[in-house]
TrEMBL record:
InterPro entries tied to this protein: ATP-grasp (IPR011761), ATP_grasp_subdomain_1 (IPR013815), Dala_Dala_lig_C (IPR011095)
Family listed: Belongs to the D-alanine--D-alanine ligase family.
Domain of life: Bacteria
Alphabetical UniProt keywords: ATP-binding, Ligase, Nucleotide-binding
Protein name (Swiss-Prot/TrEMBL): D-alanine--D-alanine ligase
SUPFAM superfamilies tied to this protein: Glutathione synthetase ATP-binding domain-like (SSF56059)
Organism expressing this protein natively: Chrysosporum bergii ANA360D
Keyword Cell membrane assigned: no
Pfam families hit by this protein: Dala_Dala_lig_C
A molecular function GO annotation: metal ion binding
Domain ATP-grasp: 128-336
Keyword Protein transport among UniProt keywords: no
Length: 349
């Protein structure tokens, strides 16, 4: 295979938080997957003002020194580079939807799930409805808009319908705590989900990888929780801000999370449910789902996170490594699959 020209789509069309989050993952990916014998990497960096830059790296200095351009000029520039495929690294809603759709229009393939699937997964209530229709168990819930009154008796989880990294998520144990929790959640979205709290047995994530047309369940990742002192995960468990204003990963070690032994009976059970979710949502290449396991061992679907930056600390990367698939092999496998699928579709057209 000739050297592939891969464009990393980085930044955010929404706010600085997502810009920093995107830079964090993209930087690790660029360093970990750089193989000059296989890839020639390019970077497109989008800022909340809608302008594009094509810096030599994702450092703040290189980004600031690169001339911004309009989307029209950016499209012209991208077309001139003969890009083979795109790796989306944007985690805001526009980045996961509109910007992926742009590359559909440009007929440039991209790794990961399609814009329409990402749009569905970005709305937690819609995602729950679809997987529930496929027979997957989901917590009882309701979707509220400003002014609506919850009808579900606590304990419940309140969370924005469109937000990740546990932003705006609150466990409400009594009705008197509803109002402040709703106010917090509405800071992040104009719709809020109230769902019945599933008592803690365990909480895991399960990744699904497409290999040779087959769905392969990856080893589970389990999170350290405690029914009394830490019944749910928080933003602080995932990300933290450094003194210079950059985002960094919260510690990922065996104290906070770990890979579940593949002989654990819960593994096969959750993997089967995750594959059902993958198919119900129309995913491709890979997928990732969160599940709450109640004390009786029943998995309950919580949400989907259908993206992977291919950084060493990305969840899919960690799970694949535990299965014996190193990051370079994982990345190369998905790259080849993306190109093969694209060429097949173009041939049929």
């Amino acid at each position: 295979m000739p050297i592939l020209r891969i464009l990393h789509l980085v930044g955010s069309a929404h706010n600085d938080f997502y810009c920093n989050l995107s830079r964090l993952y993209a930087q690790d990916c660029l360093e970990a997957t750089a193989e000059r014998s296989r890839y020639d990497f390019y970077i497109a960096y989008i800022t909340p003002d809608g302008l594009w830059r094509f810096p030599p790296s994702v450092s703040r200095e290189d980004i600031a020194a690169t001339k911004p351009m309009s989307v029209v000029d950016a499209i012209k520039f991208i077309s001139e580079q003969n890009i083979d495929l795109v790796l989306p690294q944007m985690f805001c809603i526009p980045g996961m939807t509109h910007y992926r759709a742009l590359f559909d229009l440009l007929n440039i393939p991209y790794i990961g799930n399609t814009a329409d699937v990402m749009a569905i997964a970005s709305h937690k209530a819609t995602t729950k409805a679809i997987v529930a229709g496929a027979g997957v168990k989901v917590p009882q819930g309701e979707l509220l808009r400003p002014g609506d009154v919850p009808t579900i008796t606590p304990p419940v989880i309140i969370k924005p319908s469109k937000s990740d990294n546990s932003l705006g998520v609150t466990l409400v144990k009594q009705a008197s705590d509803y109002q402040p929790a709703l106010q917090t959640a509405f800071k992040y979205a104009d719709e809020v989900i109230v769902e019945k709290f599933i008592q803690l047995g365990r909480e895991v994530r399960c990744g699904v990888l497409v290999q040779d047309g087959e769905l392969v369940g990856l080893p589970l990742e389990e999170y350290k929780l405690d029914p009394h002192h830490k019944p749910i995960r928080s933003y602080a468990d995932k990300l933290k801000e450094t003194d210079d204003g950059n985002l960094t990963f919260s510690a990922k070690d065996h104290q906070k999370s770990w890979i579940v032994d593949i002989t654990d009976p819960i593994t096969a059970k959750v993997q089967e449910v995750a594959k059902n979710c993958h198919q119900a949502l129309g995913c491709r290449h890979y997928s990732l789902f969160d599940f709450r396991i109640d004390p009786e061992g029943q998995p309950w679907f919580l949400e989907a996170g259908l993206y992977c930056s291919f950084a060493p600390k990305s969840v899919i990367s960690t799970m694949a490594k535990a299965k014996g698939i190193p990051l370079d092999e994982l990345f190369y496998t998905v790259v080849k699959q993306t190109l093969a699928n694209h060429h097949s579709i173009n041939f049929r057209c």
